[in-house]
Amino acid sequence: MPRPIQATIHTEALRNNLARVRAAVPDARVWGVVKANAYGHGIERVFEGLRGADGFALLDLDEAQRVRDLGWRGPILLLEGVFEPRDLELCSRLNLWHTVHCDEQIDMLATHKTHQPHRVFLKMNSGMNRLGFTPQRYRTAWARLNALPQVDEISLITHFSDADGPRGIAHQVAAFAEATRDLPGERTLGNSAATLRHAQAADVRADWVRPGIAIYGSAPDFPERTAQQWGLQGAMTLASKLIGTQDLQPGDTVGYGSSFTANAPMRIGIVACGYADGYPRHCTTGTPVLVNGVRTRMVGRVSMDMITVDLGGVPDAGFGSEVTLWGRASSGAVLSIDEIAQAAGTVGYELMCALAMRVPVVVD
């Protein structure tokens, strides 16, 4: 029998989340962002749930090829553009749209031999200070691209640094609007947080939005708002089973480093899940977990292959009992991945992307 741990990808949850995004921006088109292998869910596994998107946005040519192999004939956008000149040949063959964020990428286009001009998205660094041309240099870059026969339509793109926080996006929206004033082309600004929190503003909705984490059912501004409050459903469940139990007496300790000490008689369960499965090692005593659909807590440290949980509130639990690390229990109870991420001092994005290859994955 295989080890009793499994991840499940929920197709209906993906559809629900995509619909929730569309409801927030009914007059905009939606990119389904599937970079990082669809945030760890698997491009092939999420495709059916996200095929209602208007296009797919991703990072590399391998991911683009996989989406085309699934039969997708609509738009695909390379969010970081190309990395070397020969990448443009595959962009031509696969009919990919691609971001241009630096002079070197414009130089590559200028020497590229193609019969089909490229659709490009010119990126502005409006304050994130990662990729893109500054507002002061943006129009010059646009003029260079516009002069190239290798370039067809130029769209305009930027990315928000604080859409999920108190600083907000007004300063970046203003910088983008000023630098792109009177320039033609479709615009895309909104990530998940901007789409859900600020899309009532037409200049934020623009022509396209780019939801990532939201379509996988995680709240982009947790803990201010939860996924449930946004109407989102977790697209991944990580579940396992109890593979043993122990009865502790006062003073007994649990796990490496004896970081947990029982102060009264208690019963604990051992779960077949550890950091080698992608469960965050930084989770400590008190991290929530569901056993037979009942909320309880982890105790002690996360090991490579096991964690231990308090069975005090689950007296009927024993060998083989269902354990939900995050996601949806068979009873219907839900444990948000955002809660686990918070306990680990990180974000849901990282947990999704960190799911280990040794964990079997099924799609429902």
> Architecture of the largest domain, CATH level 2?
Alpha-Beta Barrel
Spatial strand sequence of the major β-sheet: 2-3-4-5-6-7-8-9
* Rounded mean pLDDT score: 97
Taking all Cα atoms into account, the compactness measure Rg is: 23 Å
| CATH third-tier fold name of the largest domain | TIM Barrel
Instruction: Give the biggest sheet.
Output: 8 strands, parallel, barrel
Poorly predicted runs are: none
Number of strands: 19
SS-based class: alpha/beta
Number of helices: 13
Tell me the name of the CATH homologous superfamily of the largest domain.
Alanine racemase
The number of domains is 2
What percentage of the residues does DSSP assign to strands (E)? 15-25%
Helix content: 25-40%
In the CATH scheme, the class of the largest domain would be Alpha Beta
N-C termini distance: 22 Å
Shape: elongated
In words, what does this structure look like?
With 364 residues, the protein is α/β, with parallel strands linked by helices. The chain folds into two domains: 11-218, TIM Barrel; 236-363, Lyase, Ornithine Decarboxylase, Chain A, domain 1 (Beta Barrel), CATH 2.40.37. It is built from 13 helices and 19 strands. The strands form three sheets. The chain has an eight-stranded parallel barrel with strand order 2-3-4-5-6-7-8-9, surrounded by five helices. Helix 6 (103-110) links the parallel strand 5 and strand 6. Helix 7 crosses helix 8. It is elongated. The two termini are 22 Å apart.
Layout of strands and helices, then pairs:
Elements (H helix, E strand, L loop, with lengths): L5 E4 L1 H14 L4 E5 L1 H5 L3 H8 L4 E4 L2 H9 L6 E3 L8 H8 L2 E4 L2 H8 L7 E7 L10 H12 L4 E8 L11 H10 L7 E4 L1 H7 L3 H4 L2 E2 L17 H4 L5 E13 L4 E2 L5 E2 L4 E6 L16 E4 L2 E6 L7 E4 L11 E7 L5 E2 L1 H7 L4 H6 L7 E3 L1
Parallel strand pairs: 1-19, 2-3, 2-9, 3-4, 4-5, 5-6, 6-7, 7-8, 8-9
Antiparallel strand pairs: 1-10, 10-13, 10-17, 11-12, 13-16, 14-15, 14-17, 15-16, 17-18
